[in-house]
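Memo to structure team: turn this sequence into structure tokens by end of day. - J.P.
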Amino acid sequence: MNTEKRTYHHGGLRDALIEAAVLILEEEGIAKMSLRSIARKAGVSQAAPYSHFANKSALLIEVAAFGFSKFSSALENPVASGDTPDDLREHLAKLGVVYVNFAMENKALFQLMFGDALSHISKSETYLKEGERAYNCIDKAVRRLKDEAAATLAAWSMVHGLATLMVDQKINVAPDVGNQVRSILQFLSLK
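Reply from structure team:
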């Protein structure tokens, strides 16, 4: 029987550790996450994470950056079908649906990205870049309708609030999230 640990000679250790951390986060929550458990999940030695991350906090920042990258990619997917106000409103509504769906499909990752767990930790350049990329997806769509920073903040706050309420199970998940998002945008006079 072979009892040797797997090693990552192909240069993929960093990504493997982030993937293992995301799995633990989604399956067991942040409280059960340690560098030791992440190393075990990735199939590497307990010391291996320290070759890429100074500590658990540094790894969590990169997990959140990974989350923002995944989130941004999802937000960049819906493309406006035209430049009329109705087309732009529908595009914004689609972004809102993507936002809520991402939150519901990645609850623990979403909570890590936007919650208090990282508030006291210095952010990496990747984290800041990916977070800004996600925000810019929303800002660009809103500003095509109404070129005001307050409009972006209002739209983002309301859709984020809806997503957070659903993730935290404070409200029931709507069978048609699209209609809820459209109602929010209409309430904001963006629809």
